[in-house]
Automatic annotation (TrEMBL):
This is NAD dependent epimerase/dehydratase family protein. SUPFAM superfamilies: NAD(P)-binding Rossmann-fold domains. InterPro entries: Epimerase_deHydtase, NAD(P)-bd_dom_sf. It comes from Brevibacterium mcbrellneri ATCC 49030. Residues 4-205 form the NAD-dependent epimerase/dehydratase domain.
Length: 303
C-alpha cells in the first residue's frame, strides 16, 4: 500500500518506521531533510507547496502529523489553513490525524468515546475548530485521540513526561510534576498510537470520526517516576516536586509555553483518564515495556 505522511516529528518518525518495516511505500512531506530510509520518499518543504507536486489518487491513505509551536495563535495560523488545504487535496482518500484531549475541556478528566467537544482553553478552542473542520469535510477522516505521549521517538519539547520526569531521573535530578501528582492519568505509548492510526486508515469507512488510541491503565505522576527509575536502574525518587501554578503563571509573562500550560491547569488538577473505545481490542504495550522503549530510544539517540 502507499501512504502520505505529513510531518516527521515524534509521531511521524514512528509511523514511517512501522509502515516501511511492513513493506508499505511512504511519501514523507517535511520541512527539513531526514535520513534515507528504504521505502520512503521525502519531499522537503512546506505542505502547502508540496501538495502541488502530488496527486492524491496515488495514495491509499494520508496521515497528517504536522504540528506547530505550543501556542494557540501558532496552531490557529499554521494548522487550520494547512489542514483545510490537505483535506481539499485528499478528496476521497481517507485522512487520519493524531489528536489531543484538549478540545474536550474538563470532560477530558473522564473521557469516553463520543463525548461532545467542550473546549476550556485557547488551545482547546483551536483543537475544537480543527475537529469541526474535519467533520464538515466531505471525505472520510478519523481523529485518533491520545493522552500524554511517551515513547522512543518522543522529544523533550513535545512530551511533558520526558522533559519533567524521564530526563531528570536519568540525570540524577528530582522529577517535577504539575497539578495533582497523585491523580491517575492515562498515558499513550507512541508505537501504540501509531498502530491505532494504521488500523484507522485501513478501516476508516467502518469507524466513527473520533476514536481513542489504545492505552494502558492510568498511573499517577509519582507512580510513573518510580516505575521509570526502576526500569532505568536509577535511584527511586522520594516523590515528585509539584511546580506551583503561581510560578507557572509568573513565568508565563515571559514564555508562551508556560502561559499555555497554565491555561491547561484544569487537566492537571484532576484525574485525566482516556477510556477505551472501538480500538480496545488492539494490542497495548504494558507500562514497564513502554518505559524500556523510552530508555532504549534515549540511549539510541545519544549514540
Amino acid at each position: 500500500m502507499s501512504f502520505l505522511v505529513v510531518g516527521y516529528g515524534q509521531i511521524g518518525r514512528e509511523l514511517v518506521r512501522q509502515l516501511t518495516e511492513r513493506g508499505d511505500r511512504v511519501t514523507v512531506v517535511k520541512r527539513s531533510g531526514m535520513p534515507q530510509r528504504r521505502g520512503a520518499e521525502v519531499i522537503q518543504g512546506d505542505v502547502q507547496d508540496a501538495l502541488s507536486e502530488l496527486g492524491s489518487e496515488g495514495f491509499d491513505g494520508v496521515f497528517n502529523c504536522m504540528h506547530a509551536p505550543y501556542s494557540a495563535r501558532a496552531w490557529r495560523d499554521a494548522l487550520i489553513p494547512r489542514e483545510k488545504q490537505l483535506l481539499e487535496w485528499a478528496g476521497d482518500v481517507p485522512v487520519v490525524f493524531p489528536e489531543s484531549v484538549y478540545a474536550w475541556g474538563a470532560g477530558a478528566q473522564e473521557l469516553k468515546e463520543g463525548e461532545p467537544v467542550e473546549p476550556a482553553s485557547p488551545l482547546g478552542e483551536v483543537r475544537a475548530q480543527l475537529l469541526r473542520n474535519r467533520e464538515a469535510y466531505g471525505g472520510k477522516t478519523v481523529s485518533v485521540v491520545a493522552a500524554d505521549l511517551i515513547g522512543p521517538t518522543a522529544s523533550l519539547a513535545g512530551a511533558v513526561f520526558h522533559q519533567l520526569v524521564f530526563d531528570r531521573v536519568m540525570k540524577g535530578r528530582h522529577p517535577l510534576g504539575m497539578g495533582d501528582v497523585r491523580a491517575p492519568r492515562s498515558i499513550t505509548y507512541i508505537p501504540d498510537l501509531v498502530r491505532g492510526m494504521m488500523y484507522a486508515v485501513e478501516n476508516a469507512h467502518d469507524l466513527p470520526s473520533v476514536v481513542h488510541a489504545p492505552a494502558a491503565g492510568p498511573v499517577s505522576q509519582v507512580e510513573l517516576a518510580r516505575a521509570f527509575a526502576r526500569v532505568a536502574s536509577k535511584p527511586e525518587p522520594s516523590g515528585v516536586f509539584q511546580i506551583p501554578w503561581t510560578v507557572m503563571k509568573v513565568t508565563g509573562l515571559f514564555s508562551q509555553t508556560f502561559r499555555e500550560l497554565h491555561n491547561q491547569k484544569y487537566l492537571w488538577d484532576s484525574p485525566q483518564v482516556l477510556h477505551a473505545g472501538v480500538l480496545a481490542d488492539l494490542p497495548v504495550t504494558s507500562l514497564d515495556a513502554a518505559l524500556v522503549g523510552c530508555v532504549s530510544g534515549r540511549e539510541g539517540a545519544s549514540l
